[in-house]
Amino acid sequence: MVETLRIGTRGSPLALHQAEQIKGLIESASDGSVSCEVQTFTTTGDKLTTERLISSGGKGLFTKEIDVAIEAGDVDIAVHSLKDVPSVLPDGQDLVAFAPREDPREGFICQSATSLEDLPEGAVLGTASIRREAQTRLARPDLKIVPFRGNVQTRLKKLEAGEATATYLAMAGLTRLGLQHLAHPIALEEMLPSPCQGIVAVAAIPGRLGVKSYEALKTISDPKSERAAAAERAFLTALDGSCRTPISGHLFQEEEAFRFVGEVTAPDGSEVWDNTVFCSGNADIDDLAAAGHSAAETILEALGGALPHIEA
Q: Is 164 exposed, middle or buried (0-12, 13-18, 19+ CB in 10 A)?
């Protein structure tokens, strides 16, 4: 008997692409014994076109309606960009699979310059991310920063309309949409991304999944993405981070070791607090989560236990 697995996702082109990717992986891994149906949702976060997330409740706004659908049994799994998922999941939910990580770097998009350094003094840069804003202010305090909200296509249209000279978009999303040629990638060491940027994850209430569906999800899960998610989400959780504080974190998976780098930036770009934790190449999930947690504790100690933040 073929199991039907209902997939919940946001309705943007990027979210749909990600859901279709997971659908294909599941159906292939199950050898036809699981059939997937994609159901789209317009989340509260999708409806915000001008406001910052902190003004309306934070990044959980991108998952709220789908979380409710999972709880109600209207869908079986949710496919999310993991950087949009709160560090604490709703009761009963767990992350049950992770797709291979796409390019985690930031992409700088501008028709007249190839890098932030090349922008003329006082140029206008559009972003709604307080992390990107803080990192930009740290590097270029002279620039004028204006809010840029919306999906990839919306922000590209705003840029084309002249609402700003430049903006940032995640290389992961651009690559999945075949638009990577529009951006100039920024080295991770130069602009550390949001924790879990580039990772697509599957959330579910595990006990409700059929045996074939659960086995297929475990088969498709990428170990490298799972390791990165463990370290980066542990860092975010230990900081009790929210959309009110500029937080960056990334697990570098090198040949014989792991290196976790975490940062907190003052919202005005005046200062940055960072920490690096190394792990051996045979570190397990718990070790990597401990590394992320340790980096957070060190930064919190340097900050006197209180994160810098902007008011909603």
A: buried
Angle, CA 275 vertex, CA 269 and CA 281 arms, to 5°: 140
Two tokens, residue 69: 């659908």
Token pair for 126: 């559009």
Instruction: Note the pLDDT tens digit of each residue in 23-42.
Output: 999 999 999 999 999 999 98
Distance separating alpha carbons of residues 182 and 74, to the nearest angstrom: 38
The dihedral of CA 73, 76, 81, 82: what is its sign? positive
pTM for this model (two decimals): 0.92
For residues 216 and 3, give the distance between their C-alpha atoms in angstroms, rounded to a whole number: 11
Strand order in the sheet with 166-170: 144-146, 124-126, 166-170, 106-110, 184-186
Average pLDDT over residues 29-56: 77
What are the catalytic residues? Answer: 84
* Gap between the Cα atoms of 261 and 251, Å rounded: 6
Taking phi first (over 0 means left), then psi (-120 to 50 degrees means alpha), and beta for anything else, what does residue 12 get?
beta
**Is residue 235 pLDDT above 70, yes or no?**
yes
Tokens of 212: 């074939």
Q: What is the pLDDT of residue 308?
A: 86
HSE at residue 30, side-chain half, CA atoms within 13 A, is 24
How many helices (H) and strands (E) are present in the chain, helices listed first?
9, 13
Answer whether residue 214 shows pLDDT above 90: yes
The answer to whether 255 touches 215, Cβ cutoff 8 Å, is no
b/e per residue 171-210 (b: at least 16 CB within 10 A) = bbbbbbbebbebbbbbebeebbbbbbbbbbbbbbbeeebe
